[in-house]
Design a protein that fits this description.
It comes from Petrolisthes manimaculis. Helix content is about 50%, strand content about 15%. The protein has ten helices and seven strands. The structure holds adenosine-5'-diphosphate and magnesium ion. Adenosine-5'-diphosphate (ADP) binds near residues 47, 52, 69 and 74.
Length: about 230
């Protein structure tokens, strides 16, 4: 058995290492481009949260990710930061390059707010496609070449059908609160969206829980996803 003094020394070493990691583990060390880093700092984020620290580098590498973490852990920036990095700046020629699928209007609008704040210096344009809003307004918004579309599944399927909208330039897809997407009965719409995506694309799935249906969906739609879970950590 280790003596008390030895245990104290070990504790001290662990504490020092933690401190050092905290210092070197800022957003500044993630290799982010100027406009993206500025947006994060302007929003007042000084250090990445644990889920951001774990997911951002892996998503930046281009891997598909299934990430599980509780509400309030900072999942929005976990996908927005690498998404901005991937898209870089506004492009009027390519059309929609990123899709963010959310289960509810409220969450989608919240995500739009984060997109505007964190993406302030990127010049990227976002549009929302949500049930409950006028569909004409959404047609108009989609004609203005948004880089990012934040949508609820039902309305996205409806609008893209009506506009004969192809997703051929979509390279990045986020399913936020994915467990909710299934609980609210969007399985059919999600499959429909999956079918229309280009074969080469990056997909990330964020969820608080990982029910069986979600595992099946991830197996069908994601390519060798990296599973990142913080639910068991303290
Ligand atoms: P989740 O999607 O996991 O529920 P959010 O992305 O909504 O979490 O973030 C929860 C809150 O924490 C928000 O107010 C957000 O601005 C804040 N937040 C996120 N990341 C950071 C960070 N790195 N530093 C400080 N605050 C943060
Ligand atoms: Mg969230």
């Amino acid at each position: 058995h280790a003596s008390e003094a030895e245990l104290d020394t070990r504790k001290l070493i662990v504490e020092r290492r933690k401190k050092k990691n905290r210092k070197s583990g800022g957003f500044q060390c993630m290799g982010l481009s100027g406009p993206v880093l500025r947006g994060v700092l302007r929003k007042g984020y000084k250090l990445p949260t644990p889920i951001q620290r774990k997911t951002i580098p892996v998503i930046l590498e281009g891997k598909d990710v299934v990430a599980m973490a509780r509400t309030g852990s900072g999942k929005t920036a976990s996908f927005l930061v690498p998404l901005f990095e991937k898209l870089q700046s506004h492009s009027a020629r390519t059309g929609i390059r990123a899709l963010i699928i959310a289960p509810t209007r409220e969450l989608a609008l919240q995500t739009l707010k984060f997109t505007k704040e964190l993406g302030k210096f990127t010049g990227l344009r976002a549009a929302v496609v949500l049930g409950g809003d006028s569909i004409e307004g959404q047609f108009a918004a989609l004609h203005e070449n948004p880089d990012i579309v934040i949508a609820t599944p039902g309305r996205l399927v409806h609008v893209s059908f009506e506009m004969n909208l192809k997703f051929q330039n979509v390279q990045f897809v986020v399913f936020d609160e994915a467990d909710q997407l299934f609980e609210l009965g969007f399985a059919e719409q999600l499959d429909d969206i999956l079918k229309r995506l280009p074969e080469v694309r990056q997909m990330v799935l964020f969820s608080a829980t990982l029910p069986k249906m979600l595992v099946e969906f991830a197996k069908a739609g994601l390519f060798e996803p990296v599973l990142i879970r913080l639910d068991t950590e303290h």
